[in-house]
Design brief:
It contains four helices and six strands. With about 120 residues, it is an alpha/beta fold.
Length: about 120
């Protein structure tokens, strides 16, 4: 399954996302971020960083994410993690995924490892 997560603001959230990527059994990982994240996050071979402009309007952000993911997401459902990012970023990503028609499973890093929530 594919993991889609924001790599954005929030103290300690990059560490959570990194552990999700490392410990989870994902075929492909798409991390939506900004230019800073794209330049400063060290991605592994299965991880693709997608830089978007989060300062644009909500609908514009949703449309940008949808356009990018439409060409990338291969499965009928994806794993989503919302530990990093803002409410606006999460709404845009959720709306983009729903408009793509994919199923969504929420997963997070817990004391027992990567688990569906």
């Amino acid at each position: 399954m594919e993991l889609i997560a924001y790599l954005s603001t929030g103290k300690g959230t990059w560490g959570h996302v990194s552990r999700m990527v490392q410990d989870g059994d994902f075929e492909k990982v798409y991390l939506i971020t900004n230019d800073y994240g794209k330049e400063n996050y060290t991605a592994d071979a299965k991880t693709e960083l997608i830089a978007v402009n989060s300062s644009q309007g909500l609908k514009e952000l949703r449309d940008e994410i949808r356009t990018v993911l439409k060409e990338k997401v291969k499965g009928a459902e994806v794993v989503v993690n919302f530990v990093s990012g803002t409410g606006k970023e999460h709404m845009a990503l959720m709306s983009a995924l729903l408009k793509l028609g994919v199923g969504i499973r929420f997963m997070a890093l817990t004391k027992d490892g990567v688990e569906e929530i």
